Amino acid sequence: MEIWINPACSKCRSAISLLDEEGAEYTVRRYLEDVPSAAEIRDVLERLGLEPWDITRTQEAVAKELGMKGWARDAGSRERWVAALAEHPRLIQRPIITAEDGTAVVARTDEAVRDALGRSQGEDPSTSL
Q1: Cα–Cα distance between 42 and 21 in angstroms, integer?
Q2: Whether pLDDT at 125 is above 90
Q3: What 3-state class would DSSP assign to 92?
Q4: Could you tell me where the beta strands, DSSP code E, fall in 44-112?
Q5: Model pTM?
Q6: Cβ proximity of 95 and 15 under 8 Å
Q7: Please, what is the average pLDDT of the chain?
Q8: pLDDT, tens digit (0-9, with 9 covering 90-100), for 11-55
Q9: Which one of 9, 24, 28, 48 is the catalytic residue?
Q10: How far apart are the first and last CA of the chain?
Q11: Closest Cα partner for 95 from 35, 31, 38?
């Protein structure tokens, strides 16, 4: 299991604390320093079952500078969004946990972190809470 974090983010710190409390084995990726490639972003999006605009922090200053709120949200615009996330990783919603079962979750709540833990431990997420 890997968790993409920004250490300055309270949601990320909370997710790490919960993982530690549960004794989970995980790898931390400080994605602002170890920037994911466009291919890695595509992979995480597939694992999440989401589109790039679903994980974009559109309130960030750089998103406003780029005018991202006005960008099309369709298949033809997908690569433009992915490229922007790769070029400006601060735009990526956080934390993201990639689970051992090949899925991923945006872990902004304790429930989402527990869901990822269940997926990594081979449990049915609906029974792990």
Answers
A1: 31
A2: no
A3: strand
A4: 96-98, 104-106
A5: 0.88
A6: yes
A7: 93
A8: 999 999 999 999 999 999 999 999 999 999 999 999 999 999 999
A9: 9
A10: 19
A11: 31
